[in-house]
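REQUEST ID: PR-0412
SUBMITTED BY: lab tech R.K.
PRIORITY: routine
TASK: structure prediction, single protein chain
INPUT:
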Amino acid sequence: MALEMNNIGIMPHSGKAQALELALDLVDWLDSKGKKARFLPDDAVVVGCPEKGMAREEFICDLDLVVSLGGDGAMLRAANLAFEAASPVVGINLGKKGFLTALQFENMYPGLEDIFTGRYLLQERMILECTVEGDRSGEKHYALNEVVVGKRELQWMVRLEVGINDRYFHYYSGDGVIFATPTGSTAYSLSAGGPILDPAVDCILLTPICSHSLMDRSVLISSESEVRVVVEREKAMPSLSFDGREETSLPDGGRIIIKKASRRLKMIKSADYSFYNLLRDKFDFPEAGK
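STATUS: complete
OUTPUT:
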């Protein structure tokens, strides 16, 4: 049964002219279907329809669907907001790899027609929740792909003590550690030598970055576990990022707590979606028998 989708949030890649043009066309198309399009204020201005802009709090209110126009980076931005709104998100790929997106831009309108009539696959993807002890704001940060505890200076190592479920696990020296979801296993973690995981697998993937240790292999941690990271501050200034967004500083003595979020992201895929077909296509695996 099709979900009722009337209020559509559009989030284009503001640095891509094609995304802005498509966003403006999409407004007219949605209007012809009796749907109401909305943008965040800055996006509405660059697209050319400032009257459609809404403050973040208003944007996420009664939001039925978020449409991302761009590549995986734009999709991560849209997913963060869709998760906050508890609404599904669909990505239109204008980039290269497009692991997270569901539709190519040339099939955008037929694909959206399918979604509005209920012909799609709704997946629920695991999200990581991260808090920093000692941060007076008590803010929670969320990531679809990964939380990265790293460093700002190229020439120094960062030293991290990692504990799992209140027990010491390992001490890492190097460029940092990636804590990825299965969805994020094909992103930064893969570049650092980590394995590819089916998004249906429930776990936290720990992958060290340029580790100065023989223990430089990835570790799969139960999604029911809580991970604690303590940064040893010496020469390197530590950094903490969420899906590539560096959003918070690390107070002295602060511990980073990473765990599975209590909710999941609703991600729309085409009805014939297969993760393994996606892998074959994106990595140019040979066809059968070749």
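NOTES: Residues 126 and 264 are 5 Å apart (CA to CA).
REVIEWED BY: pending
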